[in-house]
Specification:
five-stranded antiparallel beta sheet; 336 residues; 10 strands; CapZ_alpha; three-stranded antiparallel beta sheet; Aspartate Aminotransferase, domain 1; Ribosomal protein S3 C-terminal domain; 2 domains; 26% strand; actin filament binding; F-actin-capping protein subunit alpha; alpha+beta
């Protein structure tokens, strides 16, 4: 027995990997709650710190969390596009760099961005125009949304004749743990400016997460990808066209989510139940007295027939040893 217990004992590496899995799969806005429980279960600060130091940066960037700057001059989005060395993240709108404590999810410092960390004036013109249009859209569409536009590739391009890429990041979260619900909307749009073809290709990835946990545990994890294109024009014209495309696709996807929820009772939920009972005929709820199987089963079990047998509470409280058989039969007869 001692040998079997030793073999079943998890190694420190396995414990760290399991802890990381729970942290990375935390619902939107709930990683701190999960971390508290994981730390209590591990009961080892060294192992927890190792797991947290690896999981939190990945979680923060994948959920596009937004943190206020220490000097209250704005916010910084934690994304792979804004990431610099040493847990530093660029806010291109204010040209500042924030140092982030991933585990505590706070900004611990801020400094002006260096020239080499910023795009060239030519790229900045396109980035700034697009940022202004996206900001107007987000303020209209998302009450608690934040956004930013980054130069993903070609930040040193000085003028026409070369390709470059911008990234539009939109993050909106609504955390209400006191009401047992949290949710987030994250969308990333890669905008490729192709000089030779004089086109702008747009590829979007949308991720929606929600968690409702009052007397239960219901989660939504939806993902959607789309693409579009427009003409390579002047910076202002491109910004209007790109923001219009993003607005169209996000509005369309939101409408599809709403439509799917409206149809849940008549489609998805019903598909979870048996379309027909084992008799291959619909159960006559309107006239249960005519259902002969109930009387036959009662007769076989030596129980006096009572139409109230079809009441779940009644069946579950039968004292006969064969009560479980009735329960199984009753559940098999439930129709869609």
């Amino acid at each position: 027995m001692a040998d079997e217990e030793e073999e079943s004992e998890l190694s420190d590496k396995q414990k760290v990997e399991i802890a990381k899995w729970f942290l990375l799969n935390s619902p939107p806005g709930e990683i701190q709650y999960v971390a508290k429980d994981v730390k209590s279960i591990l009961n080892d600060d060294v192992l927890f710190d190792e797991a947290a130091s690896e999981a939190f940066p990945v979680y923060n960037k994948s959920h596009l969390i937004c943190l206020p700057l220490p000097n209250r001059s704005g916010d910084v989005l934690v994304t792979s596009f804004s990431e610099l060395e040493g847990n530093a993240f660029l806010d291109p709108r204010t040209t500042q760099v924030a140092t982030v404590d991933h585990v505590k999810q706070v900004c611990t410092g801020v400094r002006p961005a260096a020239d080499e960390e910023l795009p060239s004036p030519y790229i900045e013109e396109y980035r700034c125009s697009l940022d202004a249009e996206i900001l107007k859209y987000v303020e209209e569409a998302y009450p608690k949304g934040v956004c930013s536009v980054y130069c993903a590739n070609g930040k040193d391009v000085e003028g026409p004749g070369a390709d470059f890429e911008l990234a539009v990041v939109i993050s909106a979260a609504r955390h209400s743990p006191q009401n047992f619900c949290n949710g987030s909307w994250c969308s990333i749009w890669n905008v490729e400016f192709k000089d030779e073809q004089q086109t702008v290709e747009i590829k979007g990835k949308i991720q929606v997460g929600a968690h409702y946990f009052e007397e239960g545990n219901v989660q939504l994890d939806a993902k959607h990808e789309c693409k579009d294109a427009t003409l390579f024009q002047a910076s202002d014209d491109c910004a209007v066209a790109i923001s219009g495309i993003i607005r169209h696709h996000e509005t369309e996807y939101m409408a599809s989510l709403e439509a799917s929820y409206l149809s849940l009772p008549d489609s998805t939920f019903k598909d979870l139940r048996r379309k027909l009972p084992v008799t291959r005929t619909l159960f006559p709820w309107h006239n249960t007295l005519q259902f002969s199987l109930t009387r036959e089963v009662s007769k076989e079990l030596g129980i006096k027939y009572n139409p109230n047998m079809l009441n779940t509470n009644y069946v579950q409280h039968l004292t006969t040893p064969n009560a479980n058989i009735l329960i199984v039969i009753y559940r098999c007869l439930i129709e869609k």
